[in-house]
Design brief:
Layout lengths: L9 E5 L7 H11 L3 E5 L2 H6 L2 H8 L2 E2 L7 H15 L3 E6 L5 H4 L9 H24 L3 E11 L13 H23 L2 E7 L13 H11 L7 H12 L10 E4 L10 H8 L2
Helix pairs in contact: 1-3, 1-9, 4-6, 6-7
Length: 271
């Protein structure tokens, strides 16, 4: 069901890889709610995914960009405003990557060149995106910028590795840059701390199936799906949340406030 919440609004969606990704589901929901947007991803990611099919489905334009490159981002933002016919109302940053995770290096044995690359892609890119948007005065007043995070920024999930540090940095950037964007441009900046979600990137983390099962048993409402997250993101893009900013918003079925659940206790007692 659509409500026309984003009718006439324009934006950029980073990170739609395939139909399992949260950015993909968000693009579909934004389209259903009347929004128009440019899709973007790194050229190498675009070769791995099926973003062109999403563009056709949502009548959107694809502009490749490396989110760690200021030059690419400047081109992306200026071209997006040309394609869409004006300033932007929303931006979704759905980007994350750890070379250490991909290569099987533990948190206690990191390759720091890989660590730096993962930080740049997963967190530094968010600052770069907002810096370019800010300098180009590319956002309309009461616009909304959202990045996707995970609870490992606050709590220990050993196999999440250096991505936990990246997410903590991402959330800090949202608060710090969000202050200036709010003060100077009346633009909101928030992060969503989503349930573990079986995206292509998420499934690359060791023990991820265990994360999902444990969170499902702990959360009174169960895990939030990619579509659930897309719906929540739409609400943050809409005019209904104009005074919500500088927040890390837990979207996890209640997991973040749980100590233990009956289901988890029962599982231990049955052993």
């Amino acid at each position: 069901m659509s409500y026309g919440l984003l009718r006439g609004k324009r934006g950029i969606i980073f990170g739609a890889l395939d139909e399992n990704s949260i950015a993909w589901k968000t693009a579909e929901r934004v389209h259903e709610e009347g929004g128009s947007f440019v899709l973007t991803n790194a050229p190498i990611a675009m070769r791995m995914g099926t973003i062109n099919a999403l563009a056709e489905k949502t009548n959107s334009t694809v502009i490749p960009a490396d989110a760690t490159s200021i030059e690419d981002l400047e081109k992306l933002v200026s071209e997006s405003m040309q394609v869409l016919g004006g300033k932007l109302d929303f931006v979704l940053h759905s980007i994350g990557m750890s070379v250490n995770v991909r290569k099987g290096r533990s948190y206690t044995d990191q390759n720091y060149d890989w660590t730096a690359k993962g930080w740049d892609v997963s967190a530094g890119s968010f600052h770069k995106v907002m810096q370019v948007l800010y300098k180009q005065d590319a956002m309309n007043e009461w616009g909304s910028i959202v990045a996707l995070s995970y609870m490992a920024a606050q709590r220990v999930f050993p196999d999440y590795n250096d991505m936990a540090d990246n997410k903590a940095f991402l959330e800090s950037i949202a608060r710090s840059f969000g202050y200036f964007f709010g003060r100077d441009k009346k633009v909101r900046v928030n992060t969503i701390s989503q349930s573990p979600t079986p995206t292509t990137a998420g499934k690359g983390v060791k023990g991820f199936d265990g994360f999902i099962s444990y969170a499902e048993k702990m959360s009174p409402l169960g895990n939030a799906s990619a579509l659930d997250c897309a719906n929540y993101t739409v609400s943050l893009f809409s005019d209904l949340t104009q005074k919500v900013t500088l927040q890390n918003l837990f979207h996890d079925g209640g997991f973040s406030n749980m100590g233990v659940s009956d289901s988890v206790m029962q599982a231990f007692e049955e052993q």
